[in-house]
Design a protein that fits this description.
The protein is of the alpha/beta class. 55% of the residues lie in helices and 18% in strands. It has two domains: 69 residues; 105 residues, no CATH class. Strands 2-1-3-4-5 form a five-stranded mixed β-sheet. A hairpin with a 2-residue loop joins β3 and β4. The chain starts with a helix and ends in a 6-residue tail after the last strand.
Amino acid sequence: MTVVEVGVLLLMAVFAGLAIHSSALRLAIIYLAVFSLLAAFLYLLYAAPELAIAEAVIGSGLVTLLYLAALKRNRVYTIGVVNEALGDRLTDNYVLHVEHSKALREIRKFFLLREYEVQIVFISTSLEEALRDSSYDLIVAEDADGFAAFTDDDSYAMLELEMMLQMRGTDSAVRFVRFSPEGVV
């Protein structure tokens, strides 16, 4: 075995592991596509160009598109995170602090169990502007008292999340604030 073959096999093992352990389904599909491209390259190294072309077209191209089309039916739940005190001075430390907070871990876990893909977006606008933006399913704001989750009056998912956190008795310290999108000026 040559060094290139060993390198390709190791990369295939890495991308297979990433695909298996990825919590984001879209990312797992991309890892599988890269795995398939590496397999096509390996077929080329073994002098099997017909198999390489078939693997590249079918395995990496067509199957990836089919998976992504099927996954499009999967709902993405977008959570906007606002911290008006920071404004435009968002730092990596703050992003890590929020993503590793008990509150966001519990919220993410809740939606992942319901097969939603959670997308967290850090917003540099004011809370009022974020509440008017209909592209966010949930707005989370951090203040001195912890995290507040701003949710639509009609959101049954948030009612379920709030009840689940209360029944579990978690110390995530999330306050739920209901609002009407029409009432935000």
